[in-house]
Amino acid sequence: MRGQDERTGSLFSYVDLERRVGRGHPLRAIREIANGALSSLNGEFEALYAHRLGRPSIPPERLLRAMLLQAFYGIRSERQLMERIEYDLLFRWFVGLGVDDAAWDHSSFTTNRERLLEGEIAAKFLAAVLAQPKVKRLLSSDHFSVDGTLLEAWASIKSFRRKDGGDDPGDGGRNGERDFHGEKRSNETHASTTDPQARLYRKGNGQPARLCYLGHVLMENRHGLAIAGTVTQASGTAEREAALDLLDKRRSRTGRRVTLGADKAYDVKDFATELRRRKVTPHVTRDDHLTKTGKRRTSAIDRRTTRHPGYNVSQRSRKRIEEIFGWIKSSAGLSKVKLRGRARVDAAFTLAVTAYNLIRIPKLLEAPA
User: Fold this and answer.
1) For residue 218, what are the β-bridge partners?
2) Strands, DSSP E only, in the chain?
3) Among 102-116, 210-224, 246-260, 345-359, which stretch is predicted with the lowest mean pLDDT?
4) Which among 142, 252, 304, 356 is least buried, having the fewest CB atoms inside 10 angstroms?
């Protein structure tokens, strides 16, 4: 018999979210790992929220789970995220809202998110995920890779103006005409009026200069999981400086020698020297190209490093870090960040790195040993 296309309602309705989400749904395993990490951060959350009377804020655990969904599904804005939580039962279940609970206002969500920046919760959340015993067994403690990627800032190139106000557009309107022909611009004399911390930078010859930040990831080579991430202002030395900073934060207490794979941009004598001083073997791609004068550039990586079989293994493994950057930019929507200020961009980038790990970890745990 044909069913009738009529809308029916009932006086009472009961929806069990646990039964609506399938037992084999990928978010179930992800939520279990995320909740284990969030429970270990209870002390950090207590320190951020003052004990006083007033209206309760959005619980930080629910806030972070909602931000993970934003990265998983590439949702562009907080307004769209709140709309999705309002009508999507799967989102309500993952965040921890009941069927009858109202979704938060997008402005309240944004205000509460700012509080997490003060405690650097994104970085601590990533560390808590990796510190769980079942996850820690997946990580290599001896072999790592590092790389950086451009994150285009949420600012127009027209906003890059002289710091002394010498090129004030006057009454040009919101999007007035701008002629850059023959004008010399640099980060020393110019800054973006929209995002002053963004820097004009280009990755290589033949590529356009953009207002951007640099995102950096330290990856372990066994399964290609990101163990640390950070965002810096774009500069020619930022990648190497960030790599040393990430290594110092992850330095092994045992003092064992470890290896670090990287591309040609890291083939600099000072960087290789700093790595060896830290008992890190630089498995960096040799950059010995012919210069414009016809001379071959001298590489900082010599035969004492490249003759070992482990060097070639690191060179193959380090390329997997591009998978992390590819997912963060395409799926998590960070090819052009929608936040302003280095601290906010850093938090969004680190949370996206955590989301990438959470997607991969359940599959790795299920794989046969």
Assistant:
1) 146, 228
2) 143-152, 160-162, 190-192, 199-201, 210-220, 226-233, 258-262, 280-284
3) 246-260
4) 304
CB distance 164 to 196 below 8 Å: no
pLDDT tens across 94-113, in order?
Answer: 999 888 888 888 888 888 88
Determine the 3-state secondary structure of 92 from DSSP.
helix
The confidence score (pLDDT) of residue 82 equals 93
Integer CA distances (angstroms), 239 to 98, 191, 232, in order: 44, 21, 9
Residue at 80: amino acid letter:
Q
Query: 261: which residues sit within 8 A by CB, 6+ positions away?
Result: 143, 144, 145, 146, 221, 283, 284, 314, 315, 317, 318
Provide CB contacts within 8 A for 253, sequence distance 6+: none
> Which amino acid type is present at position 329?
K
CB 95 within 8 A of CB 66: yes
Q: Looking up tokens 């959340």, which residue turns up?
A: 125
Least confident among 95-109, 217-231, 252-266: 252-266
